[in-house]
Here is the input.
Amino acid sequence: MKDAIYVRMPRCGSTTMTSICYDYNIPVYGDRDMGFWAGRKPRGGYWLPNPPLLMPNERTSKHLYECVLNYVGKDKYEKSYVFSSVRNPYSRAVSMFTHHSWNSVKTFKDFCHAIKTNQYPSAMAKWHSATLTEHIVIENDLKVDFVVRLEHIQEDFNVICDNIGIPQQQLPHRNKSKHKHYTEYYDDETREIVAEKYARDIEYFGYEFGE
Here is the structure.
């Protein structure tokens, strides 16, 4: 099995990916405003966080990939198969809104106004609302070897399995959000806010509203 690293981006199927990573001792980095968390897999097959390895105030860069590189070392980072995950920002925004870190915000419109004006109810809410490209894409250069798209997570995970030398297997669906199809949350105003906030994610990864 080839050495691998998972750079965990929030609200992108990361809990599902992390549960598999722990099965194969693949390091997972990135949580709570770029603080790194270890994990263990207790009896029952699910993972729980241990105390953090690196606290957010100890981070070494504003880019998550670079925090990971600095933490593990350039040689380890470059020799490992580094992968992350992404998601359609319009769908991801609804997943953020329904996460418990945003419980104090009652409507999706209020949520959109909050992210537009950078008014976050907590550090977790702020981290969950980060753009993807700011952390794994620098000057149009993707800083990981592969990105899993949540929209076809199983197919992309199969590619990772082949590349690092583990058996292809059915992914579990962890931490599933309970909400209507994301398009039902939007009006013209909120769609414009999300399009502006996540413009680079939308352009770089080629996403569209309604996919």
Q: What stands out?
A: The chain has a mean pLDDT of 88. The chain is about 40% helix and 15% strand.
